[in-house]
Amino acid sequence: MTQKYCIAIHGGAGTILRSTMTPELQLQYETGLQNAIDAGYKILEAGGSAVDAIEAAVTSLEDFPLFNAGKGSVFNNKGMQEMDAALMDGKTLAAGAVCGIAHVKNPVQVARAVMEHSGHVMLAGVGAEEFARAQGMAMEEDAYFYTEQRYQQWQQALKDDVVQLDHTVKEEEKTDKKFGTVGAVALDMNGNLAAATSTGGLTNKKFGRIGDSPVIGAGTYANNDTCAISCTGVGELFIRSVVAYDISCLIDYKGLSLKEACDIVVHDKLVEIGGEGGLIALDKHGNIEMPFNSEGMYRACKTSEGRNEVLIYK
Fold it and tell me: Any idea which positions bind substrate (predicted)?
């Protein structure tokens, strides 16, 4: 029997409503998701590793300006980008992460380099950027990260003196929240799991704020014995709940299925403390879960058994 292989990705969760989405914009989002899932799946199909697949998928999402990661990253309070990313190998439990990094085209690639070449797990700020340059990573000037939509969001946030979740329209603050993060989880032909997450954080964020994305066990986790997880949501609450590791523990210690573990964490434990968002999860048997407790989540999955889904709403 051939080992099944599969991949799932997300482009963020939140209050994503059909009523505020044009057909043209929806098609752009769906195309971005499909291109990313195809990039990762192609590697798995050719016998490549889960780590290679998630790196390719997240790189594709970072290069797509509509998602809050890489090129589409939001502006911080100083009018710059501060990006976070993490990557974890479920086979070895090796992990790499960067936070508060600027000028790097693809933070997920730097996170992998941290895992493989630094002897550390997490590098931050100027030092992380220095490491990226030393590793020969693609760097970009500030202009590369400028998108009109993100700039206008920042201007509005400055005017209102608020920190915003990826995208907020002033007139509809309660109906247009998106937690901008991208991520991928994969299972390869050799039965290895991997997870990666990347984000530009919050619009108008100050003081070097870091969310859950680069925190191993909170926003990103992978273990061949249990599952691979990438989260998107209110980062502070995902850190406090150690969401990704909690799901792994429920499977490991209580013998729950992936679905049962995800449902308890996303729909019960997070909801109790006001933790809005979602995640993508994959277990060693190739089961995929993409739960969220918000209105929607940009998500997609593709399996060797022929499943290919690109979804946005509930």
Answer: 209-212, 232-235
Contact between residue 209 and residue 67 where contact means Cβ atoms under 8 Å apart: no
Contact 12, 179 (CB under 8 A): yes
pLDDT in tens, 197-239: 999 999 899 999 999 999 999 999 999 999 999 999 999 999 9
181 among known catalytic residues: yes
Q: Which of 297, 282, 311, 293 is nearest to 5 (CA)?
A: 282
Give the per-residue pLDDT at 171: 42
Please give the CATH topology (third level) of the domain spanning 6-307: Glutamine Phosphoribosylpyrophosphate, subunit 1, domain 1 (3.60.20)
- Say if residues 35 and 187 touch (Cβ distance below 8 Å): no
Cβ atoms < 10 Å from Cβ of 126: 11
Instruction: Please tell me the pTM assigned to this model.
Output: 0.95
Helix axes 50-62, 107-117, angle to 10 degrees: 150
Contact 16, 313 (CB under 8 A): yes
Give me the catalytic one of 181, 203, 226, 303.
181
Q: Are the C-beta atoms of residues 268 and 243 closer than 8 Å to each other? A: no
Q: How far is CA 111 from CA 5, 103, 247, 261, in A?
A: 24, 14, 23, 27
Q: Is 159 left (phi over 0), alpha (psi -120 to 50) or beta?
A: alpha
**In the chain, where the domains are located:** 6-307
